[in-house]
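Because discrete structure vocabularies remain unfamiliar, we turn briefly to a single example record, giving the amino acid sequence and backbone structure tokens:
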Amino acid sequence: METPLYRVRTLTLEDQTASGLWSDMQCTWNTISLDLEALILAIFHWQNHLQNTKLVISTDNITVVWCLRNQWTSHSHSLLQQTFSHYVKWNWMLSEAPEKQPPDEAREGMMYLSEEELRTDLSLDNISVRSFTDPDHSKMYLSEAELRTDLDNISVRSFTDPVHSEMYLMDRNGIEFSLNDIIRVRIDMYDSYGKRRTVGGDFLRLWMEEPGLKAIVSGDAIDHNNGSYTGILRASWTGTASILCFVDRRREEIALLYRKYNQYNTLWNAYAQFASGAMKENTLCFTTPRPPHRYCNYTDHNGGLPYYCLHPNTPGFTCAMWWGVWSSRRIVPMTPQEILVFQGTFDKRNDLLPTQVKIKIAPGTDSHQVKLTQRSILCKDVSPAATWQKFSPSGFIFMGTWYPRLCSLGMPIAESTYSSCLANKTLWLSGDSTSIQFVIQLNNVLGLAPFIPRTHEPKRIYHRSRNYSVAWAAHGFPYFPGGNVQHRSSLIPPQAQFKYTANNSRDIFVLYLNIHLMLVHPRVFRQHVRIMAQETSTLLARAPNVTVAVRGPHAFYQHPYKEIYSYWGLLFRDIIHEEFRPNRDRVIFLDYWDMTVALAPIDFHPRPQIVQMMIQNMMAFVCRDTS
């Protein structure tokens, strides 16, 4: 009987070949694990031939990095560590003086790291796509400098045109995969002339779905900045599936917003209202001073974050007469050419690539398994540090239910379970109108108030007998509350409540910044998150029993307000990870990106069903103490 090809391993060194068979156990491993195992076997098989030579290992960097980032607890990780340990042992064996460490000059250019270096540089907290790959070729998005484009001398027809673009499988074994396999697609972009694009920067949404199973899983699109993208997905259920790709924003649209941030500071108008009796005056507000104008500095009111409003011109009016805040949506001034770039395409149905890749997914070793198995550990028992792992995807939808990969929710949507969690506490949900949605949907379960308006003044609902409350307040400036003037006290930085928190408090804080910060340069978001992280450290040092979580950005699909891009969520998520690095062992990260890429809300206000799913996920992680 002929041996199946997938069981055979073949190693080649110049004109020499060695081969053997994978064991039954090894045949259950994914291809990345087998590649690393083959590397180990090769080093030992030809160690004598490799003496006094320089060994250079070339690998498919993108896939390996993706696996390391998203399967860090898997066999791939242990094999990588094993491989590096073999490098060390191999060098030790070939060294002229085995009893001594190799001299510094001998270590120069070595293809391995020491055990200590491995502990530092490959620690769980440092895993990310960009930290392991060539910065020019493996990114989820491009930097502002990389996106700079001559927008004034460019034809809109030279932009990426999904109708002419292509997507196809990169795997050589056909369309059949096994559960938990990694699936790779290549996406090549073309313009409206049918010409191949040679730069990257487009914001792509990649996902796999099977409507009959109500199953969806998001994918990552790696930008090579040459017009090609590598899409990476995970086979999360058995049966059939279709892979789809959507061009959410083009490179030129993103570059235009960067230009406008730098020119005008904010994309919408934020106002301060000054009042004395019946007299009122409104002036514009910014995140930086606007010389040569006189301005009022309200940074102290904003928790130490930049807040500058033009000084009122009315005789006798001073900065101390500031009373209220409001905003208006405006389109910042644009040239005719910039308007063409801003408008982009009008028919968004044409932004979906016409190519749909169809695949089949087999169960694998367990013929009865229909989806990826969840870990048995409950989310409430997962360490905060583990929530910062960049699993991709962080979960998937099956039969309309969200299944996180990190843990099992164990938190039914019910008044009894939520009330038990919140007893004798306050749940602080700072943020914007999407956080108000959380309060509204929580109230629908808890039944604490007959009605909660979606207005922007602070809110609090109570359960008297169980002694708990749910509170909301708008985060600090920049915040754009709309045309109804709110009192200036309505803007409260998320960390401002910390100073009122008792040292023995068991309150729960869910910190959130996202939508309103999309109307200013991303550097402002970083300023806010940095202060938030610093204040969180101070709070946890004196009130160790509080629970703090950071809610990550969610995705949405081309809101009618064209100047608000979900794209910034990718950048915001990385900024949160970077600034909260010192707090990861104490602060929970709530990652909603993959969930919302899969569920595809159109508005940046998700549908109530999606909000309930997000709340259930939040409660599963933050409900760590029901006393």
User: Anything to note?
Assistant: The mean pLDDT is 83.
